[in-house]
């Protein structure tokens, strides 16, 4: 099938040449696409201080630009989260890469908050198109290993988000630091697009038929089966809280971390901003099991987040690093468990739609609380706002831990 025929939901052309890739190659390609798109979406984290100086942005402006990405991503998940169930995984990923290329170029050349937000929004559209498609593709490629499919999904996602700030910091050492990282990233996306385009795609799960087949692409009201509803809401709540913390790490945290470590090195600040997300990604490799894993991991997340807020008051870089690592580990273990549970209870034909709905709520955590944090910084100052924000996140994590513990003991 060609990409264009997939977009039209037409049958494959007989005898058409294509790269009949192995399962391993398909796994790698699906993971690489979402990983690369998320790297690009987070390259700007250590660059925001430079962008503030170049364009004249306030702390609130930074959170607005960051949130435009999240809100666009959420809108796409709501409107088009189920598309890959009909047009095929490959076509959805190709669209995502093309939109990501445009978004990165616009962001690199932005000279106003409006242009910056437009570039970020297109990056959000790209990630939104790829999220459900890559998750569903990985599950289809590992039908007998749903746990590993979910693990690869989260590893690719968290790994891309974590690597973005570190790579952005390193690439900012090159000439023209607010543009060069995005040009380099565009070249990588183009390189990924070639094998993706040549791939001999497998048929879509539910290709529509008839003269009005396109109607299946219309937005749908999210619906969850009764058996999966409890797992769905726990995954959504855990995801919302997790991404509230991640949103802080990827927007205003560079300025906060700079005050704690008394440094202005962009590579160092980029690494610190990605520590929590990197620890989350690495935790996907751990085979931790048990009915008390989720409540314990959420409790670790809650305590660690509070200590991140306390690090500046105690002027302790070591506490900042240690608390960031344990927060990421707690988040990663908890989210993987609840994500696996809901993914295992959803039928394959609706997997992309339901997982996209989980991510709708999850990604809202990176927008609404972070905008509130930006307003608080304007009113209270950075340190006081961060302490209050991390305290609220810690309390929410401990509350979720208690709810999860109650459910685990009841089962």
UniProtKB/TrEMBL annotation:
Q: Keywords for this entry?
A: Cell membrane, Membrane, Transmembrane, Transmembrane helix, Transport
- Its predominant location is membrane
Q: According to its record, how does it sit in the membrane?
A: Multi-pass membrane protein
InterPro entries per record: MFS, MFS_dom, MFS_trans_sf, MFS_Transporters
Q: Which residues cross the membrane?
A: 27-48, 60-80, 92-110, 154-174, 180-199, 230-256, 293-312, 318-335, 356-376, 382-403
Q: Where in the cell is it found?
A: Cell membrane
* Keyword Membrane listed: yes
Q: Which residues form the Major facilitator superfamily (MFS) profile domain?
A: 26-411
| Name of protein | MFS family permease
- Organism encoding this protein: Paenarthrobacter histidinolovorans
Top-down, what is the taxonomic lineage of the species of origin? Bacteria, Bacillati, Actinomycetota, Actinomycetes, Micrococcales
